[in-house]
Amino acid sequence: MEQFYTIQGEGANAGRAAYFIRLGGCDVGCHWCDVKESWDADAHPRQTVAELVAQASAHPGRAVVITGGEPLMHDLGPLTRALHEAGLQTWLETSGAHPLSGEWDWICLSPKKFKAPRPDVLAQAHELKVVVFHKNDFAWAEEHAALVGPNCRLFLQPEWGKAATITPLLIEYVKQHPRWQVSLQTHKYLDIP
To answer: Which residues bind substrate (predicted)?
Structure first.
C-alpha cells in the first residue's frame, strides 16, 4: 500500500529509525482502524521483492517494519529473506490472526477482538501491544498476556481517538500492574508519518 522512512512511534522500538512497508489487505476490520484504506489488497499496486528491498536499503536505518492491514495474509518468507540478505532487520506488526511466515528479528503482536490471534504467533511474540479502547480491555489484555512467552514485553496503548479519557486509566492500571508498560503513539504527538 505504501512505504516510508520515519521513526517507529510505538512499543519497544519507539524512537528508532525504521523503514515501513505497509501491505494492503486486512480481514480483521477494527472499527477504530486508522488505515482502513489498507483493507482492500487489490486497491494497491504490486511491487517486486527486489523493488521493496532496494527502496528500504536506500536509507541509513537498518530496520524494516512490515505492517498493514494485516501483513500475515501474505507469504512473507521471500521478502524477509531478501531483507536479511541486504543486511536489514525485520520487524513485524501483526494481529496474529493468520499463520506466521517469514524470518523475524522482532514480532509485535497486537491482538484484536474481531479475530483471535493464533497460538503459534502468540508463542513467538517479542512484544504484546494491546490497544485499550475502554476499561474492559484490561481484562482482555491479561487473557492474552497469559498466552505469550515469559520474555514477551507487555504494552498497553490508548486508542488514539480516546487517548484523553483512556490514558489516565491506563496509567493507573500500569502502576497497579507493573509488568505492563505504557505505549503511546508518539509519532502522532510529534506529527510525523
So the answer is: 7-9, 22, 67, 193
The CA–CA distances, whole Å, from 111 to 30, 31, 53, 163, 185 equal 11, 14, 28, 19, 17
Residues 6+ apart with CB under 8 A from 36: none
Q: Is 152 annotated as a binding residue?
A: no
Element (H, E) at 122: helix 119-124
- Does 32 appear as a known binding residue? yes
67 is in an annotated binding site: yes
Q: State the cell numbers at 45.
A: 499496486
Please count the CA atoms within 13 angstroms of the CA of 170 that sit on its side-chain side.
26
CATH 3.40.47.10 fits 2-189, yes or no: no
Instruction: Give me the pLDDT at residue 186, please.
Output: 64
CA angle, 28 as apex, 143 and 125 as ends, to 5°? 45
**Residue 69 pLDDT:** 84
Q: Is 108 annotated as a binding residue?
A: no
- pLDDT tens readout for residues 130-146: 999 989 999 999 999 99
DSSP letter at 39 equals S
Q: Where are the domains of the chain?
A: 2-189
Given a cut of 50, the residues of the chain with pLDDT beneath it are none
